[in-house]
Amino acid sequence: MASVYRLLSFHAATNDLSIDGNFTGLHRKPMESVMMNVSPLRSIRQKDSRWRSLGTVKTYFEVMASKDPCGLGQELKKSDRRHDLKDNDLDPLKDFEARFLKFKKQDYLENLDHYQNLAQGQSPKFMVIACADSRVCPSKILGLQPGEAFTVRNVANLVPPYQHGASETSAALEFAVNTLEVSNILVVGHSCCGGIRALMSMKQKSNSKSFIRDWVSLAKSARLSTEAAVGNLSFEKQCTHCEKESINGSLLNLLTYPWIEERVTEGVLSLHGGYYDFTDCSFEKWTLVYRESLEGGSKFAIKGSSTWS
What we know:
Blueprint lengths: L2 H11 L27 H7 L2 H5 L2 H9 L7 H16 L5 H15 L3 H9 L5 E6 L6 H5 L6 E6 L13 H12 L4 E7 L3 H7 L10 H6 L3 H11 L4 H20 L3 H9 L3 E8 L4 E9 L9 E9 L1
Parallel strand pairs: 1-2, 1-3, 3-4
Antiparallel strand pairs: 4-5, 5-6
Helix pairs in contact: 1-13, 4-5, 12-13
């Protein structure tokens, strides 16, 4: 995506920032999340008798998955796995044994010195924050080798602000920056993100408790920016916009950590955003610039935006 769009998108993501770089919008009342609207099979059969003749849940999902590769196809895979385990009574980890032994023979033993050095300690230059989505493996996508990147994955690849308190992501950040002294942090988002779709589908009020709702609400300023910028577009396009907007929000949240802001100001730590689109196998990347008195009076800008395809 063009650099101009990045800047416009990036400035939209800063709407809830106070003068000291902290998110003020994070103290608003959380919104309710509504997961994907998939009707139970019983309701489907009541509404449309055509599915009665098909006879199985699998058949229904096969038809629907062809129309929605980002959604219902996952349900079909679940059905297939349950069926295979029941019929074959296999150890679900059996295949991992063969993969591990292959790794040991073709990788570990052939690079024994490297792995023995890693056993003594690690000194990665990168920390990668990626989504927990099974389709988005940063090591596979970016060719990361053991020892190259300290990695944490969570729903929707979000970075909570410093004020949010302890979480697995903030703990990983503290260790990577203060102990390992990584010189780069890369936040990787992706297409068809279920967490962002949940965020964009939220209702304003709810009395129910949801861990997903509470977590993705951390990116609610990205939703507000998206609605302001592309609210007239389709839901799919809004989700794509928000997937990228939330990455910028996470980059700004990184700067709420005092020890990250200090290192970025000193020039010893760089913050990067990345977006992996697995529908066409492309990767966008950009770098955050943060310093006093940038052109236009802002503290934030982006550079090095490019797309690999």
